[in-house]
Amino acid sequence: MTRSDHPSRAHAGLAALRPVRTRSISPENLDGAPGRGGRATEGTGAEAARDLGQGWKVSPSVDVKAGETFTLADIDSAGVITHVWITTHTDHWRRLVLRAYWDGSEAPAVEVPYGDFFANGWGVFAQVDSQMVASNPHGGFNSYWPMPFRESARLTLENSSDVDARVYYQVTYELGGDHSEDAYFHAQWRRSNPLPTATEHVLLEGIEGQGQYVGTYLAWEVHSNGWWGEGEIKFYLDDDQDFPTIAGTGTEDYFGGAWNFDIPGKGYTAFSTPYLGMPQVLRPDGLYLAQQRFGLYRWHVADPIHFTTGLPRVDIQALGWKSAGRYLPLRDDIASTAIFYLDRPATTRPEPPSFDAMEIHLGPGAGPHSPAGPAARP
Description:
Elements: E1 21-25, E2 62-64, E3 69-75, E4 79-87, E5 96-102, E6 110-113, H1 114-117, E7 128-129, E8 133-136, E9 140-143, E10 147-149, E11 153-159, E12 165-175, E13 184-192, E14 201-208, E15 211-221, E16 233-236, E17 246-247, H2 251-254, E18 262-263, E19 267-268, E20 271-272, E21 276-282, E22 293-299, E23 305-307, E24 310-316, E25 319-322, E26 326-329, E27 333-342, H3 355-358
Parallel strand pairs: 6-13
Antiparallel strand pairs: 1-12, 2-12, 3-11, 4-9, 4-10, 4-12, 5-6, 5-11, 7-8, 8-9, 13-27, 14-24, 15-22, 15-23, 15-27, 16-17, 16-24, 18-19, 20-21, 21-22, 25-26
């Protein structure tokens, strides 16, 4: 597999003949073996298929038990995951933790709340029309991040809550090819809730090795009146210590917008494009939702940020305005997902997301995070 054949460039070589095989893991074929799909005689759809029998959607989903971890995929040879589709009820989006392990590593390279990984961090659906992540009605989550591995891959889903979660999913991957020069896919989640005064929110720190930073998602809740996005994002590369190599000019600038994302007469305006967007603007409802909440993404696909020896730190400021044209440091709720490729399958990472750390706080009553009930699916 040459560099030009890499799945991230597949659009440029769809007609090329390559020595790989396509496989797919789902509840209908849990190990992805050839000719093993649709053979189930037991499963979550067995009752609905009782008049039809084997081959008729007998096992379309799995139940991830409360407090347990389910293995979505376990692959024991070289390859690359090319697509993940998954869905579950909105109540679970900040209660499930998605993890990925490469080449037998005991430490995960990916450890992110389910919804945040798919740019839906607030437990309320937002349409995302991007190249790497597509989130479609109502909660059909898709990832097109290429995830290569040289020996093995394992994806898991932990249910941190006391309620079972029914999950439908499909992991599509290629077997074969030479991945000896490919970096490993990583994603880390951190939350500042609230952010201490005059302190940057850290997205990454202490990363050693060669690689490239490729993506940011932020779920941001504003705790003050007025504009909240004057803060700069900074990338400390390689030997940077006191000052970074890359310093942005403002939060909305980094995510490709301008002038507060505010179209006169319309206010904050959601948008979603192939590489960047603010697909979610949640406004106060005058009852239980007191703060404005935003979801923003920036995929560095056309402009990856390369580092040679490490990524000491990536952080972002939270700044508004106060009197006399002075900046106001904010104490907002900021949850970040940082995505990067690295030359090793494991690296320094924060504490695993817990139920309490992920929780979305609401006042009494239902609100949008407690819909009437699960969708009527078998």
